[in-house]
Design a protein that fits this description.
The chain is an all-alpha fold and 64 residues long. It is 77% helix and 0% strand. The chain has helices spanning 2-12, 14-17, 24-39, 43-52, 55-62. It starts with a helix and ends with a helix.
Length: 64
């Protein structure tokens, strides 16, 4: 769960917080994988949820 917060934090300010050799897609893939494990959802469903909701909402929902 800690890594989920870290990745969301980087994605929210990607230009200044990213690691120089990592793409946005790499961060999104990592986030998707972590969220799938956390919620026990499949990748297709998680990608749809990430597309539908802003990252701040995804982070808020996981705290419940």
């Amino acid at each position: 769960m800690h890594r989920i917060r870290e990745v969301i934090n980087v994605l929210n300010d990607f230009k200044t917080k990213r690691e120089p050799n990592r793409s946005r897609k790499e961060y999104l893939d990592l986030l998707t994988q972590d969220l799938c494990n956390y919620y026990s959802y499949n990748e297709f469903l998680m990608n749809k949820l990430i597309d539908l909701f802003p990252l701040a909402e995804v982070e808020r929902r996981k705290k419940i």
